[in-house]
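Exam prep: given the inputs below (a chain plus zinc ion), describe the expected output before reading on.
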Amino acid sequence: MAEKPQPVQVLYCAVCSLPAEYCEFGPDFEKCKPWLIENAPETYPDLIRDANEKEADKVSEQLQSVSVSGEGAAAGGTSTTKQEEVKRLPGGKIKKKEKKEVVIEKVVRNKRKCVTTVKGLDLFGVKLSDASKKLGKKFASGASVVKGPTEKEQIDVQGDISYDIVEFITETWPDVPENAIYFIEDGKKVAAA
Ligand SMILES: [Zn+2]
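Solution:
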């Protein structure tokens, strides 16, 4: 019956008040970007990638400024004010609010090899190494804890287990409510429940 997966309720951008998918057509996409990265990362995966790249730039900048400030100190230390400016520019720490949810994504690697990634179980107090073992056993498949693209740990399970996994998760870890489980399908986040 179900022809289309039910989308998650529409997420409105707090910056321009359009639905998040439409921000890029909105009046000021640039201003929306930080909000989108925080709140609608699946809608704009590119932004995350860009942000990560910028983050990497920032780190290398900081490394440079550290080495420069080292020189400055050796030379007598008159350049400290300049250094502080440089350091403050990138805007301090990025605070990350984390929504408590488990996100499951089927990823096809090397054309045929399918991997199902499970992110967020740790947010519900599940030990990932333990979860990985249980998933591997349940699905008779290789499962491992790996670092995802944003340096956060996730579980990779070989094969497409996305059909049975929701039931397994809610049965095995009752603290994870079904309505906190999402799938990524065609780049969109879809509620499992
Ligand atoms: Zn917006």
